[in-house]
Design goal:
The chain is 73% helix and 0% strand. The chain has 7 helices and no strands.
Length: 172
């Protein structure tokens, strides 16, 4: 059973890293904004396994993805780590809430927290000017769009993948 979990985490980590790297080749409508396709795999592990398993996939995505992208020893890694962590915590709390968010709703929350964290880190470390918060409307709209995209893909994959046949019953 533990071997299955390790294999699943490895496979999902590899997919998250691959999508993280491939997304660098997609055109960006605004500098530094990404769709966040790698987060599909974090979200799926979060809903099918547990927080710590999703944390492993998320950290793998950030650390290995930035290593292969040549950004491991740049400030970008701090932005990536913090925003991924806050997004994961927000998605986890939204799953645990009694509201009953859909995967798309959880994904939107994750995208919003990811982008808001990056804005906060940019303010604290780089900009130190309140005018940076004039970007909030753009960030909210962009988070909504990217959250819908990643949530929709996660929903499709969740419906297609046979998690129940490869995971022990206490992980589903």
């Amino acid at each position: 059973m533990k071997h299955n979990k390790a294999l699943i985490l490895s496979a999902f980590s590899i997919m998250a890293v691959l999508f993280f790297i491939l997304e660098n080749f997609l055109p960006k409508p605004v500098p530094f904004f990404r769709i966040g396709l790698a987060n599909v795999f974090v979200l799926l592990i979060l809903i099918k396994m547990d927080f710590f398993s999703a944390l492993i996939v998320s950290l793998s995505k950030v650390i290995i993805g930035n290593l292969f992208s040549g950004l491991i020893f740049t400030p970008v890694i701090l932005f990536s780590l913090l925003s991924s962590l806050f997004a994961l915590i927000a998605m986890y709390l939204s799953i645990k809430s009694k509201i009953g968010f859909s995967l798309i709703g959880i994904s939107i929350i994750g995208a919003l927290f990811h982008n808001l964290t990056q804005l906060g880190v940019a303010y604290i470390l780089l900009i130190r000017n309140g005018k940076i918060f004039t970007l909030l409307p753009i960030i909210v709209v962009f988070s909504l769009i990217t959250g819908i995209i990643t949530g929709f893909i996660a929903t499709l994959l969740n419906n297609k993948l046979q998690f129940d046949s490869i995971l022990p019953t206490n992980y589903t």
